[in-house]
Amino acid sequence: MKKEHVLRCQFSAWYPLFRSLTIKREDPPTCSQPDSDDEAEEIQWSDDENTATLTDAYWIAMNSSLKCKTLSDIFLLFKSSDFITRDFTQPFIHCTDDSPDPCIEYELVLRKWCELIPGAEFRCFVKENKLIGISQRDYTQYYDHISKQKEEICRCIQDFFKKHIQYKFLDEDFVFDVYRDSRGKVWLIDFNPFGEVTDSLLFTWEELISGRNLKGDFSEGEGLEQDSPAFRCTNSEVTVQPSPYLSYRLPKDFVDLSTGEDAHKLIDFLKLKRNQQEDD
């Protein structure tokens, strides 16, 4: 993964190309627009930053949702998101090229709020412009309809990819998220870099990069093409897992101390404990 791949996944880089396939971007009202109570109630945004969403901060909102009605709602999510902190401080983490970091013009993206069912979201992995894997997005839960309809879901996403995405995105290796609504229509949600900075969900990055263990999961009699992608979902309630965002509810200093990721914080903590013992 190179730095240019990260830049090409910015919202402003891909949105003009795929505007008709995704959720509409909403421009916030300006001061010159009317400010009636009725209009304020109708304005609901899902906030996004041009390289990452705030999914790790939903827990702090009053409604446990990323729906924002006021500027204060947006600020609260921003202050509570480790994803945003990472994008501001380490935007090119895991990039392999040694070139100087390019300048990023950060932008706040407000998108029209839509009630999306978690069990209808899927993450798709593309390598060399070929769809190699599809994963259930919310893999912590078991959804019966996914297991029963996985062939149909896979076929719909494949058709969407070949018709609208393949050879049209700016890179040949990338990750994209989609939503399949109750009518079977597929919507584009977001793009992400093809690399460790992106959650591989029910795959591992070793599998995705090497191509091993990615043989299609369907038999020939099920009507899918031979080059169909590997499709993975949570197959039973026995395999349900805790939310991957639980650790983000802790202060980052606590997490760094427990994992040893920040040696300076550990040294400061040990000095503090030593001073406390000396005082006692």
Query: Ranges with pLDDT <50 over ≥5 residues?
Result: 30-43
What letter string, H or E per element, gives the SSE order? HHHEEEHHEEEHEEHEHH
Number of domains as seen in the coordinates: 2
Which radius of gyration do the C-alpha atoms yield? 21 Å
Helix content: 25-40%
State the distance separating the first and last CA atoms.
52 Å
The backbone outline, from C-alpha atoms, is globular
Number of helices: 9
Overall number of strands: 9
GO biological process, one term: cell division
Protein name: Translation initiation factor eIF2 assembly protein
Keywords: Cell cycle, Cell division
Subunit structure: Interacts with the eIF2 complex gamma subunit EIF2S3 (via C-terminus); the interaction is direct. Interacts with the eIF2 complex alpha subunit EIF2S1. Interacts with the eIF2 complex beta subunit EIF2S2.
